[in-house]
Design a protein that fits this description.
Oligomer: single chain
Helix content: over 70%
Number of helices: 7
Distance between the termini: 46 Å
Structural class: mainly alpha
Radius of gyration: 22 Å
Amino acid sequence: MTTPIFTFTFLPLFLLFSSTFTPITANNVISETCKKCAQEEYPSMSYKFCVTSLQADPNSQGADLRQLGLISMKLVQNNVTNTRRFIKHLLKNEELDKFVRMCLDDCLDLYTDAIPSIKQAVKDYKMKDNRHANLAVSSVSGAATTCEDGFEERPGLVSPLTKRNNEMFQLCDIALMIINMVSSSFLFKR
């Protein structure tokens, strides 16, 4: 039987030590993942954008790193689809400058080609073929960059897709970083 002194002495110590160890929660996984993304290979990435994007998916609550990888690729897929739809809407404007129309047509082609690429990335990732998933996501990221570069060929022209292309680029960076983190953790578990 324990004595009251034992209980009163060790109970506060137990509570003190147990409260200093924070359990890993979904928000911690997202936060830690985004810190790594923003600090390491992708210093131009916004930590806030990363956290907000991942938390926007209801499946991120309770997700582990591998699941966040899939969520990040689904975010890329949604962005590709929505941007493609937006480009089609812009092209309906018959008063568009000829050069802008040409750039938008090129971007439409790039984003159209990105759809099967991101779908393949998701398939590869689900099959744990992280190398090919990485290559497919990289090609989608390249589509956003190439799209934006087309508008820069005319000095002073402001791309109507800059915000969307930048978001696409950051979403791809999040996905790539998570794929790399998952691949690294897999290598260390062997």
